[in-house]
Write a structure and sequence with these properties.
alpha/beta; NAD(P)-bd_dom_sf; Sc_DH/Rdtase_CS; SDR family oxidoreductase; oxidoreductase; SDR_fam
Length: 286
């Protein structure tokens, strides 16, 4: 059973999206919430938003790539860590510039892991703790133009699963939450990052002004509820994918690489790439 005594929760990337809503809902449930935001400009805004929702939470500037911010978090007595902070870099694997690739992994993998290392050892000394990694369906499957983001989430999957084995003898719970395509703006912003690339546009394989996120997107309520429940210890499953309607498709697509031939589709455009040409931004599931 989950440890019901755990109350002090740190949520990274709480200024927007899943992290924001989970912070609000956990605070409403009575958890002692520390909402970490990337920049100081988000601190007061989040405090005002919490007041509007009539919840009490603590807001701290916490850039997971900043060593000083990470050290500061070690003084907060965190019992539940929700690694939610992340960015998404869109573009073909052969086009994304090196600096953008490095930034993707620094924010999504290296920074959160280093933060977790320090907090996990405090949990071990305390004899209990809960670590929730916000991964993605992209950590289990892939789509064209999200390969570098997906690679960072595949890395999180490996880290989280290994961590679960390594920390079980120390009474530390580890879980993942795997959102699919949800309409929070995140996926569509990922397909705009090319606008700030410092590269030679003439060398790009694709014209990104003509592309959009290749899937219709779901209402995010399912992730809000699941992430809150997993962090609160109300759900004891290790992997938690939303929407559940995509569970069987996700499992089936994990089998595709075992069946694929290197000559499959050569000389033709993959249907998923064509979807990116045909899709409009922020298309909801019908």
């Amino acid at each position: 059973m989950a440890n019901a005594a755990l109350k002090k929760v740190l949520i990274t990337g709480a200024g927007t999206g899943f992290g924001f809503e989970a912070a609000m809902r956990l605070a409403k449930k009575g958890f002692d919430v520390i909402a970490g935001v990337e920049i100081y400009a988000q601190v007061q805004t989040l405090k005002w938003q919490a007041a509007e929702r009539k919840v009490r939470l603590r807001v701290e500037k916490l850039d997971v790539t900043n060593d000083g911010d990470r050290r500061k978090a070690l003084d907060w007595g965190v019992e539940i860590l929700v690694n939610n902070a992340g960015v998404g870099e869109g573009g073909a694997t052969v086009d994304i510039p090196e600096s953008n690739i490095r930034h993707q992994f620094e924010v999504n993998v290296t920074g959160p892991l280093v933060l977790t290392q320090g907090i996990a050892k405090q949990m071990i000394n305390r004899g209990a703790g809960r670590i929730v990694w916000v991964s993605s369906r992209e950590g289990l499957n892939v789509n064209p133009f999200t390969g570098i983001y997906s690679a960072s989430k595949h890395a999180i999957e490996a880290i989280a699963e290994t961590m679960a084995y390594e920390l079980q003898e120390y009474n530390i719970e580890v879980a993942t939450v795997n959102p699919g395509p949800f309409l929070t703006g995140f996926n569509d912003r990922m397909f705009q990052t090319w606008e700030s690339w410092e590269d030679d546009p003439s060398q790009r394989l694709f014209d990104y002004s003509k592309l959009a996120f290749p899937r219709p997107q779901f209402d995010p309520e399912a992730v809000f509820a699941t992430l809150t429940a997993v962090a609160a210890g109300e759900v004891d499953s290790y992997r938690n994918l939303e929407p559940k309607s995509m569970l069987e498709e996700t499992k089936r697509l994990q089998e595709v690489p075992w069946e694929r031939k290197v000559t499959d589709g050569l000389g033709t455009r993959h249907p998923a790439i064509q979807h990116s040409y045909e899709m409009q931004p922020e298309t909801p599931v019908g």
